[in-house]
Design brief:
This protein has about 150 residues and is α+β, with helices and mostly antiparallel strands. It has a single domain, classed as Porin, CATH 2.40.160. The protein contains 1 helix and 8 strands, in the order αββββββββ. Strand 6 and strand 7 form a beta hairpin. The longest helix is centred in the first third of the chain and has 24 residues. The radius of gyration is 15 Å and the shape is globular.
């Protein structure tokens, strides 16, 4: 539980400072934070997700922290980072659907055959909100659904 609180405090500090940094120094994209749920195909991972990503219409870079708060759970805390290429499926003035592929790394070696693997994403973005489904294969797979808030300019 103590490790979970430390990770959460660090992420809150990062997410609080990152939008200002991104808007001042990286004007080509958008910073987003999100909450969601995660699951695995043959193992249970922490069902709650805190996520952050920096993206533009062609790529995204992000990190997820999966946690359950249960110290008995083997996969209580899993960190994942990814970089993906995005392809717009439909672009309207205020909404966009997209799909993407890329690479991801998981920061919990126990129970996973691979520490790095492919990731696929499918999502929808409006001006302020977005929804994204991610699938990453580390043998076993990790899946997530996250709702994002976008820090617009």
């Amino acid at each position: 539980m103590r490790k979970t609180l430390i990770v959460l405090v660090a992420l809150v500090m990062l997410f609080a400072a990152a939008p200002a940094f991104a808007q001042d120094y990286m004007e080509m994209g958008t910073f987003s934070i999100g909450l969601g749920g995660g699951f695995g195909d043959s193992t249970e991972v922490g069902p709650l997700i805190l996520s952050g990503k920096y993206w533009d219409p062609m790529w995204e870079l992000g990190a997820d922290v999966y946690w359950s708060g249960d110290t008995e759970d083997e996969y209580d805390q899993i960190g994942m980072a990814w970089l993906a290429y995005r392809y717009d499926l439909s672009v309207e003035e205020e909404n966009a659907m997209y799909a993407g592929i890329g690479g991801a790394g998981v920061f919990q070696e126990q129970g996973f055959e691979n520490q790095f693997g492919p990731i696929g994403i499918v999502g929808w973005d409006s001006m302020e909100w977005g929804l994204e489904f991610k699938w990453a294969w580390f043998d076993p797979s990790v899946l997530s659904i996250v709702a994002y808030y976008h820090f617009a300019e």
